[in-house]
Design goal:
By secondary structure, the protein is α/β, with parallel strands linked by helices. The chain has eight helices and nine strands. Helix 1 crosses helix 7, helix 2 runs parallel beside helix 3 and helix 5 crosses helix 6. The structure holds pyridoxal-5'-phosphate.
Length: 249
Amino acid sequence: MSRLLVIGGSDSSGGAGVFADLKTCHDLGCEVSVAVTAVTAQSDRRHYHSHVLPKEALQSQLLALGDFGIDAVKIGMLPDLESIEVVRDFLLAHSFGQVVLDPVFSSSSGGSLSTEEGIASLNKLLFPHVGLITPNFSEARRLIKQVGLRSESQEAMAAACLELGSKAVLVKGGHCSGEECVDFLATDDGERCAFSRKRIPGGSKVRGTGCRLASAIACFQAKGLELKDSVGEACEYLAGYISGQMDCG
Ligand code: PLP
């Protein structure tokens, strides 16, 4: 069975973070190893606190992976510059084929999940070492704004993220408006692809969708699918998950 390594924060509500990643891996039939960067206390409506783990705690979880054969890596919440440096060093010491970074800045429950210093360092420290970044519309806007770029189109934002040093970027449109929900993929070798589907009314209120989409992409890559196919399959998986949540709620 393919194995994913998930690096990120826990969310005590279970709605997002590494617990959502674990559920996704389970749904998609992948084994999973986990390295926790922070323990957050959240309900669906409120972010109470983020307890950042000491850098040594993250380092030792990564060290303890030992001989596990990791087929793909998904990175979520990196709460500060130190955690970003630890993960950068870890990626440099290994040669993982597939690494997906979901840049997580804040939670819909209202909390900030990374420091300004951390966010500002992502492009230099991590983008060159990961295969795909998956910002949503507002995260992409923030990433490109810090280098003086401005745009409101997903295509132009994706191009700007490539300029920032990422190898491939998926600018997600789940929290935008309009009948169609579009996620736009761009790669540094010139591939451009828009994944479009009917927007599910109220779907943007479902928590942890960004975590699940990035984990699902990594799962499909771990199973051997190419990037574009992995994104397509992961979008299908997420649409099914959101519909299921709407039926429950
Ligand atoms: N909490 C943690 C620990 C996360 O990793 C993430 C997203 O990656 C979130 C919250 C954000 O979740 P939401 O979809 O509720 O904004």
